[in-house]
């Protein structure tokens, strides 16, 4: 089972190019543009699914609190960018979020839900700021609604993956940790490939 997963992950990461999810601002401004934005960048997919996985490893109220903290703060970061608030090192922090959250899933440290929500909120602000910095004010609300919904769905996919692995209790920790490690390694690849 682990050999097949390792092979599949390696093939996926070898076949993908660095994330190019950032559309030309002239094409932005609709719900569908916002919805599709997180779905066309490996960086977005990795971190959003990893947030869901991290929430699943914690269980309980983390299943709602952690993704909600990410989506909510991401919208604030988006608004801050639209208002012209500068934020340094946006792209490096986004890449660091993939590696960091992947490692947190890998190590499965028993952290308080509030602390995890705070960490993902920190990273989410940068993700939202990147979305807002690329977009003019025209169509900002539908675009924001679209990427918020897509992000929540990617979190839900991570939660479903994390909880679904729970069926195989003996392999759960190993598979979830493997997914976290694969995420962190993909984040490093994205950081150094571009």
Report on this model:
The protein is mostly helical and 194 residues long. The protein has one domain. It is built from eight helices and no strands. The relative contact order is 0.22.
Features of the shown structure:
globular; 194 residues; disordered N terminus; mainly alpha; single chain
Helix-strand blueprint:
Elements: H1 2-15, H2 31-36, H3 42-58, H4 62-82, H5 90-107, H6 113-133, H7 140-165, H8 169-193
Helix pairs in contact: 1-8, 3-4, 3-5, 3-7, 3-8, 4-6, 4-7, 5-6, 5-8
Total number of domains: 1
Number of strands: 0
Counted by DSSP, the helix tally is: 8
**Which stretches are poorly predicted, pLDDT < 50 over at least 5 residues?**
1-22
Q: Kindly, what is the distance between the CA atoms of the first and last residues, rounded to a whole number of angstroms?
A: 32 Å
Looking at the structure, what is the overall shape?
globular
Over the alpha carbons, how many angstroms does the gyration radius reach? 16 Å
- What is the mean pLDDT? 83
Largest sheet, if any?
A: none
What class do helices, strands and sheet pairing give?
mainly alpha
The helix fraction, in percent, is over 70%
What's the SSE pattern? HHHHHHHH
Measured by DSSP, the beta-strand proportion falls in under 5%
Offer a concise description of the structure.
The protein contains eight helices and no strands. With 194 residues, it is an all-alpha fold. It has one domain.
């Amino acid at each position: 089972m682990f050999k097949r997963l390792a092979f599949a992950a390696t093939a996926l990461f070898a076949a993908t190019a660095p994330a190019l999810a950032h559309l030309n601002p002239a094409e932005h401004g609709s719900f569908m543009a916002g919805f599709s934005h997180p779905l066309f960048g490996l960086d977005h997919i990795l971190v959003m699914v990893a947030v869901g996985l991290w929430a699943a490893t914690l269980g309980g109220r983390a299943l709602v609190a952690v993704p909600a903290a990410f989506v909510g703060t991401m919208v604030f970061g988006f608004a801050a960018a639209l208002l012209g608030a500068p934020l340094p090192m946006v792209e490096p922090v986004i890449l660091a979020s993939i590696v960091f959250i992947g490692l947190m899933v890998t190590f499965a440290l028993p952290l308080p839900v509030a602390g995890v929500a705070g960490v993902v909120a920190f990273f989410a602000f940068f993700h939202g700021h990147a979305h807002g910095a690329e977009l003019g004010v025209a169509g900002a609300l539908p675009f924001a609604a679209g990427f918020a919904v897509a992000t929540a769905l990617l979190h839900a996919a991570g939660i479903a993956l994390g909880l679904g692995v729970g069926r195989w209790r003996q392999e759960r920790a190993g598979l979830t940790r493997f997914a976290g490690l694969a995420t962190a390694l993909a984040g490093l690849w994205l950081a150094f490939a571009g």
